[in-house]
Amino acid sequence: MTVPSSASFVFDLDRLISHAWSRIQRIVQRKQSGEEFQDAVECFGLLCQDIDLKGPNLWAIDEGMGLSLTVGDKDYALGADTIDLLDLRLVDPSFGSDTVRLTRMSRDQYRDVSDRDTTGRPLQYWLNRRRDTPILHLWPIPEKAGYMLKYDRIRRIKDGTSPLDDLDFPPRWMPALTSGMAFFMAQVTQGVPSDEVDRFEARYDKDYATASAEDAEDVPLRLVADISGYTRV
User: Fold this and answer.
1) Around Cβ 202, how many Cβ atoms within 10 Å?
2) Are strands 82-91 and 141-142 parallel, antiparallel or unpaired?
3) Residue 149 in contact with residue 67, Cβ under 8 Å?
4) How far is the first Cα of the chain from the last one, in angstroms, to the nearest whole number?
5) C-alpha span between 36 and 33 (Å, rounded)
6) Chain centre distance of CA 191
7) CA within 20 to 30 Å of 229's CA: 103, 146, 173, 193, which one?
8) Which residues neighbour 208 within 8 Å (Cβ) at sequence distance 6 or greater?
9) Could you say which DSSP state residue 224 is in?
């Protein structure tokens, strides 16, 4: 026998629902109805949000994002699918290609800044994670043209609604996705006893823990002193 030349196994949404339902079918002993299929599509959206909350997920980090700053503007709307920012750096044309890392502030720290209208080279920021559109607040306010922000961001997982949509997950997450779908679907399927729902949840927790443990960067711990107090008002 020959070894396959590719490693391309992955589900689309229809196959994911079908495989998850096969686990439930052993309990309810019937085929999935059209209404239950639509419920499963909604369950997939809930599953994506659950995994978003448990993140961050490495494949959902967009690297090298750019934002041009405007003189006198301190507030900048980000993409609605932005969950959080990572490693925010300022490109100052007067420094050539060098960048300056901005320090993050909390809501209270930003509120306590004595003069939020101060202008100069931005040194700090507060990310207002609003319901619809996150707003990035900079301090000081850019006093000249040419500044550029470079950053990585954590985005929401894309939750497709078409059965033929590819899943916004790497193949290594297929076992956890299948277990998660079976758990979420079991909660809304008539005829599934509560103890079986608990069993589906335990399987999902186990498979999620395995996937998330692998979906991490294996690097040595590096500690860096926090000197943000030296740039805070």
Assistant:
1) 12
2) unpaired
3) yes
4) 70
5) 5
6) 34
7) 146
8) 51, 54, 176, 179, 180
9) -
Q: Supply 107's token pair.
A: 């809501």
- Report how far residue 128's alpha carbon sits from residue 134's, in angstroms, rounded to the nearest whole number: 6
What is the DSSP code (8-state) at residue 95?
A: G
- Number of Cβ within a 10 Å radius of residue 65: 17
Cα–Cα dist 104/193, whole Å = 47
Here the tokens at position 133 are 């559109």
- For residue 120, the tally of other CB atoms under 10 A from its CB is 11
CA dist 129 → 51, 61, 106, 156, 200 (Å): 18, 17, 11, 13, 33
One digit per residue, the tens of pLDDT, for the chain of length 233 reads 666 666 666 789 999 999 999 999 999 999 999 999 999 999 999 999 999 999 889 999 999 899 999 999 999 999 999 999 998 999 988 877 678 999 999 999 999 998 999 999 999 999 999 988 999 999 999 999 999 999 999 999 998 777 778 899 999 999 999 999 999 999 999 999 999 999 999 999 999 999 999 877 766 656 556 555 555 55
